């Protein structure tokens, strides 16, 4: 499982976050400011987004909706 060192886009606290692999965006909860942001692996490294700044293709919930993903439990 890959892991990424990123900064929280809200408070800039360093985060070490595991990712399930591939290029799917995931939500990360920042323990410093208790906000949630998006981590998305890209070819050149990794991007982070505030929730209200992420394009739909980088938002896990939006992607699930758009793709009709049947990933419900
Ligand atoms: Zn934070």
Number of helices: 1
Secondary-structure element string: EEEEEH
Distance between the termini: 22 Å
Molecular shape: globular
Main β sheet profile: 3 strands, antiparallel
| Counted beta strands | 5
Low-confidence stretches: none
Quote the beta fraction.
35-45%
Chain-averaged pLDDT: 91
Number of domains: 1
Cα gyration radius (Å):
12 Å
> What are the distinct ligands in this entry?
zinc ion
Structural class by helix and strand composition? mainly beta
Helix content: under 10%
Lateral arrangement of strands in the main beta sheet: 3-4-5
Topology:
Elements lengths: L2 E5 L6 E5 L7 E4 L6 E7 L2 E6 L9 H7 L7
Antiparallel strand pairs: 1-2, 3-4, 4-5
Structural account:
The chain is mainly β and 73 residues long. The chain has one domain. It is 10% helix and 37% strand. A three-stranded antiparallel sheet has the order 3-4-5, with no helix packed on it. It is globular. The two termini are 22 Å apart. Zinc ion binds next to loops.
Please outline what is shown here.
With 73 residues, the protein is mainly beta. It has 1 helix and 5 strands; from the N terminus they run βββββα. The strands form 2 sheets. Strands 3-4-5 form a 3-stranded antiparallel sheet, with no helix packed on it. Strands 1-2 form a two-stranded antiparallel ribbon.
């Amino acid at each position: 499982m890959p892991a990424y060192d990123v900064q929280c886009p809200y408070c800039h606290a360093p985060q070490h976050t595991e990712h399930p692999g591939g290029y799917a965006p995931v939500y990360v909860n920042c323990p410093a400011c208790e906000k949630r942001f998006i981590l998305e692996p890209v070819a050149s490294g990794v991007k982070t987004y505030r929730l209200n700044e992420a394009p739909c293709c980088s938002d896990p919930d939006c992607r699930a909706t758009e793709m009709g993903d049947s990933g419900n439990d």
